[in-house]
Write a structure and sequence with these properties.
Strand content: 15-25%
Shape: globular
Largest sheet: 8 strands, mixed
Helix content: 25-40%
Order of helices and strands: EEHEEHEEHEHHEEHEHHEEEEH
Number of strands: 14
Radius of gyration: 21 Å
Distance between the termini: 28 Å
Oligomer: single chain
């Protein structure tokens, strides 16, 4: 069964191996890394949870009840997959109140464990993390050796930094809705829906450009007028640090040694920072989606950049028969599905989008 991501090119060619993932929640483990220490005091009660088979928003609502607050008083740094075992921090706004007893909360929710608690002087906001560590079990592989070979390529050269299918909703519905909104077919007042549709629109255009650069063998090749970001910014979902390419030969050397990274646009209502050949390349593609472009501009989105390639760190893998277990770390804003996509195909891809959340925020 084909999926929404089949619209985009593979860096190493479409995989020949078929297999399965997320057969059990334990096949997909995610541990969040905030990247900062808590103050030890403050209005915000921090709770580290491990959840199995539950989505983040459900746990947020239940934790709010247990703490005697409204759901809006509980926040998170990133949403995590439901069909997985995931660890993450939540913050509960409890000014002037003692730490609540969560014994009953844990007893009533067997899929949730409380691992740690702390106090902090700031609430968690989406994106307040440095990244996530993943451990994935790929099952029933008909060509495990092909997966191992691709893992060696990925460790050396990375994967396309695509936004995953989660970003686009069930059967790409968020993109469909974004086009309709851009065509003035309806108005969107709900803030969360506005965010979903705008994010899907920008992500779709980014993926289009990245896919075209792969197809035309330009994903490692500097174009005149490209915009580069520092290698240390590899995990940024967006940003405008960097510089315009003026000397193509010098820029190519910097890209080859990974000190600078090629980027594609997260479109906004302002002009592209690219010029010449690169600007023409990008505009020719985004203009194929006039409704998405209109929507982005009408909502005054700010133009940003995202690296084309993603190189996982701390990679390790092991084979056992027709299974391969692989672990790696990704910066915030990046998708584990971008790695899995280069490794194997699922013969019967279930409609998981309804139950998955982004393990990338």
């Amino acid at each position: 069964m084909s999926g929404i991501m089949d619209n985009f090119s593979w860096l190493y060619g479409k995989p020949s191996c078929q297999g399965r993932i997320k057969v059990e929640p334990e096949d997909f483990i995610v541990n969040e890394n905030l990247g900062f220490d808590f103050a030890g005091h403050g209005e915000h009660f921090m709770v580290k949870i491990r959840k199995t088979g539950e989505n983040t928003k459900y746990v947020v609502n239940e934790l709010a009840k247990a703490c005697g607050v409204k759901s809006r008083d509980v926040s998170w740094a990133g949403l995590k997959d439901r069909h997985a075992v995931t660890e993450q921090w939540l913050s509960v706004h409890l000014p002037g109140k003692p730490d609540p007893d969560l014994t009953q909360f844990v007893a009533e929710h067997p899929g949730v464990e409380v691992l740690e608690t702390a106090r902090h002087d700031k609430k968690l906001r989406p994106g307040d993390l440095s990244g996530n560590w993943f451990q994935l079990r790929l099952r029933d592989l008909d060509q495990p050796e092909a997966v191992l070979e691709r893992l060696r390529h990925i460790a050396a050269h990375g994967v396309p930094n695509y936004f995953g299918e989660q970003r686009f909703g069930h059967s790409g519905n968020n993109v469909v809705k974004a086009r309709a909104w851009g065509n003035d077919e309806f108005r969107v007042r709900d803030k969360s829906k506005r965010s979903f549709y705008l994010s899907a629109a920008r992500s779709w255009l980014f993926n289009m450009i990245l896919s075209a650069r792969i197809e035309q063998k330009l994903v490692h090749t500097v174009m005149a007028g490209d915009w580069l970001q520092p290698g240390s910014d590899a995990g940024l979902e967006s940003g405008m640090t960097g510089h315009l390419v003026e000397d193509v030969a010098a820029a190519q050397q910097a890209v080859d040694d990974s000190s600078w990274l090629l980027t594609a646009p997260m479109m906004g209502d302002n002009a592209l920072p690219t010029t010449g050949e690169a600007e023409a390349f990008e505009m020719a593609l985004v203009e194929q989606e006039p409704l998405l472009l209109k929507l982005i501009r009408d909502n005054r989105m700010r133009h940003e950049r995202r690296p084309l390639l993603l190189k996982p760190t701390d990679m390790a893998w092991a084979q056992e028969g027709d299974q391969v277990t692989v672990s790696f770390s990704l910066p915030a804003g990046c998708f584990a599905t971008a790695v899995v996509r280069e490794l194997m195909l699922e013969p019967e891809l279930e409609d998981k989008e309804n139950n998955n959340e982004n393990s990338d925020q």
